[in-house]
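User:
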Amino acid sequence: MQRAPQQQQAAGHSGPVRGTSRRPCPACEADRAVPLPRFDREGWRIVRCGGCGFVYLVNPPGYEALEEDFAWEKTFRSEHEYRLEAMPLLYRADLATRWRHRIGRRPDAENYRMWFGEGRLLNVGCGAATAEVPGFVQYGIEISRELAAEADANLRRQGGHCIHAPALEGIRTFEDGFFDGVVLRSFLEHEMHPLPLLREVRRVLKPTGAAYVRVPNFAALGRRILGRKWPGFRYPDHVNYFTRRSLEDMAQKAGLELRLLNPLRLPFDDNINALLFPRAGETGRARQPVS
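Assistant: Predicted structure:
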């Protein structure tokens, strides 16, 4: 059953406000939100932190709603319908040419072997976890009840399992230095507590391990051109909007070193792709540059 959203009026915004709470900046914890009303939609409010400049959704729906009402598989469908109506020609052209994203791209399993070696792999926000990765025992964390049940069945056949929980709660069940690799693919933008989560990622990584991160690039040229119609916006389950600088700053606070995988095309890329390594002198030796 759909829960009735909280209705209130926010300074600097027009119309009713949705969500169950108003949160401080997830990067620096300051409560100095500067409204960005040009990016608001249907009562969901995007703001910029007046302290550190981080951009985020100030009124998220909360974990309970993300588990059911706003689970990824549901918001994906609603966002698909919105984009068909808001920009039918551009969106249909994008759907028809998705093959372009596969040009020159290595399979995920090959990338994971190159980045992490082999061993134990944690996929945060794993969805149904249908793909096997040779050389790894996979574990997952998933907040959607329906997807977590499917993922657990799939991962147990491979020797791992899936935890149905918010990411921060789930990752705390693993011991220090347990994983060779952690995958945060299209996940940090959904996490209401990204900095504590990255600190936990550093804790569960082996000193020679690494994490892969992919998030929408708020500084991308496409966002500047398309504005609120930029595909990196998803309401309300995208609650954080990163630039290279803000992602790197947050990684450093967590004791991690960021290395971009797409530095040359980053200004034009709607996504940031990066590896995070435990910083030398804190959790292990420095890793060699990625080729």
